[in-house]
């Protein structure tokens, strides 16, 4: 066993030495790195505009019996992926606002999330799928009859989607599930309500 280990080490050292010698011969000392190598390791990412519908928990955002239904909210936001191009995953920074009105009652939510997101390049195809997860901080409010109630919370999110790439531009679909338990103060009492749910949104992005 020791013999084979030693022999393997010697062979590996020989191969590495040969590779280093060949590299030194091909690239003179002081030569500048190629532009392709520089572009593959620099800072980059993409910024995307999201427009879609968020579905919140109906037990939290519906009054029922003909009352206000605020569980389906339209909204818009920003989804950004930032980092070095040679990183296995990118830093995800997301922001999304949604709102709805029904029967004289209006409500809205604002979610800020951070986490990690990874894209998967498909050979010879311009379609790029991705998946991500992270943590979020959210706020929401409900207004009715001149009164307003607000709450905040923290939670988790995960998403997946795909974009069709046209050079630096991208067009796609983002699907996201999240839970952000919040607490509202209503009439001196603390009321629980989830500030997030399921989001389906179209995305338009620019890569750099």
Describe the structure.
The chain has three helices and ten strands; from the N terminus they run H-H-E-H-E-E-E-E-E-E-E-E-E. Strand 4 (105-119) and strand 5 (127-144) form a beta hairpin. It has one domain (44-207): Beta Barrel (Porin). The longest helix has 25 residues, at 2-26. It has helices at 2-26, 35-41, 58-61, and strands at 43-55, 72-84, 90-102, 105-119, 127-144, 147-166, 169-179, 181-186, 189-194, 198-207. It has an eight-stranded antiparallel barrel with strand order 1-2-3-4-5-6-7-10. The protein has 208 residues and is of the alpha+beta class.
- Kindly state the number of beta strands: 10
**Which CATH first-tier class would you pick?**
Mainly Beta
How confident is the prediction overall: mean pLDDT?
Answer: 83
Q: Report the CATH architecture.
A: Beta Barrel
Query: Which secondary-structure class do the elements indicate?
Result: alpha+beta
CATH topology descriptor: Porin
Helix content: 10-25%
Number of domains: 1
- This entry's quaternary arrangement is single chain
Overall geometry = elongated
Note the beta-strand portion. Answer: over 45%
Radius of gyration: 25 Å
Q: Helices and strands, in N-to-C order?
A: HHEHEEEEEEEEE
In whole angstroms, the N-to-C terminal distance is 52 Å
Strand line-up of the largest beta sheet: 1-2-3-4-5-6-7-10
Q: Mind summarizing the main beta sheet?
A: 8 strands, antiparallel, barrel
Low-confidence stretches: 1-38
Q: Number of DSSP helices?
A: 3
